[in-house]
Amino acid sequence: MEGIIKVLKEGFGFIKTEGQAGDVFFHAKNLVGTDFDSLQEGQTVSFEIGEGNNGKQQALNVQLV
User: Fold this and answer.
1) What SS3 string covers the chain?
2) Cα distance between residue 5 and residue 23, in whole Å
3) Low-confidence ranges of the chain (pLDDT < 70)
4) Which of 7, 17, 50, 64 shows a CA-CA span of 20 to 30 A to 41?
5) pTM, entire model
6) Hey, CA dihedral for 63, 11, 8, 50, is it positive or negative?
7) Closest Cα to residue 53, out of 29, 32, 36?
């Protein structure tokens, strides 16, 4: 799945995707091949949807496209 980084906060952010209601949460620990500090809002990323520690849906294996 692909989306665009909508918001970045301290160690986490949200990805906007087409065809999905709401934004998808991601945590810095789920990044692959990039450092959180190098991310910018508006960048395109690929990811998988999975379940976080709290049982809620989140983005896993987040990578820059």
Assistant:
1) CEEEEEEECCCEEEEECCCCCCCEEEEHHHECCCCHHHCCCCCEEEEEEEECCCCCEEEEEEEEC
2) 9
3) none
4) 50
5) 0.91
6) positive
7) 29
